[in-house]
Amino acid sequence: MNGLWLLVPFMLIRFGLLAVLSREAVVRAAHFAPAVGGERVACWIYQLSNAALFLYLPFLRVRTEQPLPLFMGLICYFGGLIFCTASMTGFAAPSGGGLRTGGIYRLSRNPMYVSYFLCFAGMALLVRSAALAGIVLVFQISAHWIILAEERWCLETFGADYRRYAEQVRRYL
């Protein structure tokens, strides 16, 4: 199977499900928090690594000859899709004040990024590509800097409510 097919369920959940649940949420999801200093560079690296991942996968094939990497890849991939579905559902329906703290957001302040990493790491395992794994690693490291910018924006926007939330819920898992 061509690696491109791994992107189809991800895209349907990431964009299709979110659009069905809330068009306004699609706009919010596309918004990047204001970046400062090195965060701007990280944002560009994030976008480039995202593009590299999407452009490289069609040249790869899912490999099934070794059961352990296949099994691990399937667990990561489908776990990421499930986590992505839960995070999109929660993101589409924030509380009255706009801060999302229920559902999967009780486990992680950044479940979307966690789901992307799980899903993309699963893809790298399924196609058994060290280069794709490297792209995923660069993607995740740059995402951390974007998360720092988003958390700063959340603190400025939601104040003490976000501070209490951040004290109770981990950044990732």
Key traits:
globular, 173 residues, single chain, mainly alpha, 7 helices
Counted beta strands: 0
Uncertain spans: none
Radius of gyration: 16 Å
Largest sheet properties: none
Distance between the termini: 32 Å
Strand content: under 5%
> Helix count?
7
Structure description:
The structure is a single chain. With 173 residues, this protein is mainly alpha-helical. It has seven helices and no strands. It has helices at 4-21, 23-30, 38-56, 67-92, 111-127, 130-158, 160-168. Helix 1 (4-21) packs parallel to helix 4. The protein is globular, with a radius of gyration of 16 Å. The two termini are 32 Å apart. The relative contact order is 0.17. The mean pLDDT is 94.
Compact summary:
By secondary structure, this protein is mainly α.
List the helices and strands and how they pair.
Layout: H1 4-21, H2 23-30, H3 38-56, H4 67-92, H5 111-127, H6 130-158, H7 160-168
Helix pairs in contact: 1-2, 1-4, 3-6, 4-5, 5-6, 6-7
